[in-house]
Amino acid sequence: MSIVENLARVRERINRAEHAAGLTEGAVRLVGVTKNRTVREIETAIEAGLENIGENRLQEAAAKLPLIQRVVTKHFVGHLQRNKVRDVLGLFDLIQSVDSVRLVEEIEKRAGQAGLTIRVLAEVNTSGEESKFGVAPEATEEILKAISGCSHVQLVGLMTIGPLAGTGAQTAASFRTLKKLYDEFSSRPGGNCRMEVLSMGMSADFEIAIAEGANMVRVGTAIFGPRT
Questions:
Q1: Which domains does the chain have, with CATH numbers?
Q2: Which of 133, 141, 223, 227: CA 20 to 30 A from 55?
């Protein structure tokens, strides 16, 4: 199937999941993950209505994103090294993968030098897998405290990646853990740490994520097909 057809099918699946979860249509934002995709493939999806794209790799993004002519919100969804922060700031509207206090401090420093305010999500490793990045659930508050002292970093939510080889029940439990944290921190005074985005779920599990409370999903293969 074509990218346009795949995108329409993904939107239909999201709409069904929204309905099953008692949400209004459009409550869940779709981020198309464009790793290893050409500029033309990305623009085809944007022309078909995709409003958000996500990139995992800085070097690839730096080569592609300036060539995209159409308006789209750009998310950095990969692991971010502190020595790459300066390069990321000028390319992306939202960093989804903030996973340490030291990274928060570097973003604050570089954003201040550039005169920018950067919107971020804290990445939480809710499955406990050693192969994955993200803070442990019990360390999430430490990240939020660090951001609360910043002038140029604004936290707008949380992100996680489901178990890489888990059962449906394990995946749901992982997402439920993040939703619990999201609800807990939503009840606290805001400042520059607000809970607006709950980003969880990818091509294989976004319907489970929506059932557990996601309002943003990150989908690549289901839109663009298998990576070459």
A1: 3-221 (3.20.20.10)
A2: 141
